Amino acid sequence: MATHPRPQTLAIIGFGNFGQFLAKTFVRQGHRVLGQSRSDYSTVAKELGAEYFNTADEVLDQNPDVVILCTSIMSLKTVMTKFPLQRLENRVVVDVCSVKEYPRDLMMEMLPPSADILCTHPMFGPESGKHSWKNLPFVYDIVRVYNEERQKIVEDFILIWELEQCSMVPMTSKEHDSFAASTQFITHTTGRMLAGLSLTSTPIDTKGYESLLGVIDTTIKDSFDLYYGLYRYNYNSKSQIQRLEDSLRDLRMKLEEEERKEQDQ
């Protein structure tokens, strides 16, 4: 069991499925975990070894080292608007959204100027990280840290993921979203397009076809809201949709051109 050498008090704002998934590992490493959400997860929190609070003010009264905004990209602004943001002065604030530029810009705009900001994307979840986080990518962008004491808090938080042997990827939020539009968004788009064709397994499946079915299965497990968030809040996604449409059109034109050549012979 990986035990953190310097346990922290970690507040998870948004204690749903993903928040609980993170809490399990945080608790195992010896951290004090505080959960808060719209729904009552007090029973679940107790089972995980975490503490649950009904309001954000109650959580902040516990003086957490790190406040983790663990909400969907769709609801992030709403959650932040209702949150007592003035109480985040001189605190480390982290997000775990699958898009990075939007939450970075939102936190820089809405958080007190003295709040430190760490943007992260654990590129795995309750299914892919069920048994281990080893070699799974953890992307992080240290946006701003104001003093050595809080720099140490940020480093200790990042150490959580290093102890789990994640593949650590320091990267700017802009770089992340540029790459994610080509990988994450295109994968989800392809999977949903193929799902619309109602493809099923056949007696003569090739390995390539089995891979396509795997893409469908992986992507449709995620909610449409998550997919829409990748489209709406990644500034690069609309251009990727256009490129995908252009590529399909060009491919069809090539096929039709070859067909015409054959007919003219």
TrEMBL record:
Keywords: Coiled coil, Oxidoreductase. GO terms for biological process: tyrosine biosynthetic process. InterPro entries: 6-PGluconate_DH-like_C_sf, NAD(P)-bd_dom_sf, PDH_N, Prephen_DH, TYRAAT1/2, TYRAAT2_C. One of its GO terms (molecular function) is arogenate dehydrogenase (NADP+) activity. It holds the Pfam family TYRAAT1_C. Residues 8-265 form the Prephenate/arogenate dehydrogenase domain. Residues 238-265 form a coiled coil. The keyword Oxidoreductase applies. It comes from the Eukaryota. This is Prephenate/arogenate dehydrogenase domain-containing protein.
